[in-house]
Specification:
It contains 15 helices and 20 strands. With 434 residues, the chain is α/β, with parallel strands linked by helices. The chain folds into 2 domains: 247 residues, UDP-N-acetylmuramoyl-L-alanine:D-glutamate ligase; 160 residues, Mur ligase, C-terminal domain (Protein-Tyrosine Phosphatase, Chain A). The strands form 4 sheets. A 9-stranded mixed sheet has the order 4-3-2-5-1-6-7-8-9, with helices on both faces. A 6-stranded mixed sheet has the order 13-14-18-15-16-17, with helices on both faces. A 3-stranded antiparallel sheet has the order 10-11-12. Strand 19 and strand 20 form a beta hairpin. Helix 12 crosses helix 13. It is globular.
């Protein structure tokens, strides 16, 4: 559905002809003009649906997935867009764009297709980059959801404050319904915008508050106002994602007992703490592309403590957010018994240089009896995963982070190599069992 068209090629060539300094000056006008042009061409389709925008640093994709399941379970016709993929009612297909939030014309075309299919609700993952490029303009949002805010995309936005303000824009333009994480340190910046209805969620506070949280090998359980949820999802961070989704359901008149089956029926979320195998040793695939999310994943898998935690990781986005790299190394050393550094999405940067920057983070924790962690560098991602699986023994956990459900690896020259961490794991396990 989202193939490069003639207009994409023309716009790309025009941008190449314009000096960068000139384009940057006119960029806001250029992006806004395209956004409204797309909305006009496709007939402002969002005006006839309820569009739910989900923004934040972590948990957007999972929250979009959960909201869609809750609404579908209640009999509503739903469309959804995010890094996990696209769906219009029962039809689903992967996101191969290397772009969580599609470009303006693609986005408006999707909305029109959703409307033609009879969808009444659209759940949309809204990124700071998408807002910066005005992709949200021409879309009428009925509900804005704030998951959390952490340091991310600083090089692109120029500062953390600019990054936060980009996300705030969604709430400024959404007058009807706001759903906010009450426990997040930045919530006051998002709660200052007026809305007809606001629901705050959290573990420490909020209107939709979880208690009696129990994490285990089978998933995480929690209670809200006497309704107990027993999910197959893992980690406290998924309690927050569930709370956000349940709050959206409450906005649209659904009660907790009615939403409970939808949450409990979910076996896994592709590429998000996805257990490809549980026995004799676990193999988990997760997107974790920020220091906070990486630590959350490692912490969740460390309780109860496995025999060994074997970690395969790289660093997303060659050429950007370089500050993350030593942080990844520091966190991996803190939690992992064995570390394999590997290629992720180098783009035009030297992959080995990226991994050496991660390696530099190993020295950021006090030296223990173990000195440096047990680690090695294997650039070939398939070989790195193979080594981790071959090293694993009964009771170990192998965690592979960075790609999640992504369908390609971005390398030099704008090339993309088709890829799936989960599929590679299955192939390697099948080959080993023969």
């Amino acid at each position: 559905m989202f193939k490069e068209g003639l207009l994409d090629k023309i716009l790309y060539k025009v941008k190449k002809l314009i000096p960068k300094s000139v384009f940057n000056f006119f960029a806001p006008l250029y992006h806004a003009g395209l956004a409204y042009a797309g909305a006009v061409i496709y007939g402002f389709p969002s005006r006839k649906m309820k569009v739910i925008g989900v923004t934040g640093t972590k948990g957007k994709s999972t929250t979009v997935f959960l909201i869609a399941k809750i609404l579908e379970n209640s009999g509503k016709k739903v469309a959804a867009i995010g890094s996990l993929g696209f769906k219009i009612k029962e039809r689903e297909w992967p996101n191969t764009l290397k772009m969580t939030m599609p470009g303006r014309f693609k986005l408006q075309k999707f909305l029109r297709e959703a409307r033609k299919a009879g969808c009444k609700y659209v759940v949309l993952e809204v990124t700071s980059e998408g807002i910066k490029q005005k992709r949200h303009l021409g879309i009428k949002f009925d509900c804005a959801v704030f998951t959390n805010l952490h340091k991310e995309h600083i090089e692109n936005h120029g500062s953390f404050e600019n990054y936060r303000k980009a996300k705030e824009e969604l709430f400024r333009l959404t007058p009807n319904n706001h759903v906010l994480n009450a426990d997040d340190a930045s919530v006051e910046h998002f709660s200052k915008y007026s809305a007809d209805k606001k629901i705050l969620f959290g573990i420490k506070g909020g209107d939709m508050k979880a208690s009696c949280i129990v994490s285990g090998k089978m998933g995480v359980e929690f209670e809200i106002y006497g309704t107990m949820f027993k999910t197959k999802l893992f980690g406290e961070f998924n309690v927050y994602n569930c709370l956000a989704a349940l709050s959206v359901g409450a906005v649209y008149g659904l009660d907790l007992p009615a939403m409970k089956p939808a949450i409990e029926r979910i076996e896994e979320i592709p590429g998000r703490m996805q257990f490809v195998q549980k026995e004799p040793f676990a193999v988990v695939v997760d997107y974790a592309h920020t220091p906070d999310s990486l630590e959350s994943v490692y912490k969740a898998l460390s309780s109860p403590k496995p025999q060994r935690l074997i970690c395969v990781l790289g660093a997303a986005g060659g050429g950007r957010d370089k500050w993350k790299r030593p942080e990844f190394g520091r966190i991996a050393k803190k939690y992992c018994d064995e570390i394999i550094l590997t290629n992720e999405d180098p783009y035009d940067e030297n992959p080995l240089s990226i991994l050496k920057e991660i390696e530099s983070g190993f020295s950021q924790l006090p030296i223990t009896n173990y000195q440096l962690p047990n680690y090695e560098i294997i650039l070939d991602r398939r070989e790195a995963i193979k080594k981790a699986i071959n090293n694993a023994e009964t009771g170990d956990t192998v965690i592979i982070t960075g790609k999640g459900s992504e369908t390609s690896i971005a390398v030099s020259g704008g090339r993309r190599i088709p890829w799936s961490d989960a599929q590679i794991v299955r192939e390697l396990i099948d080959a080993a069992s023969r």
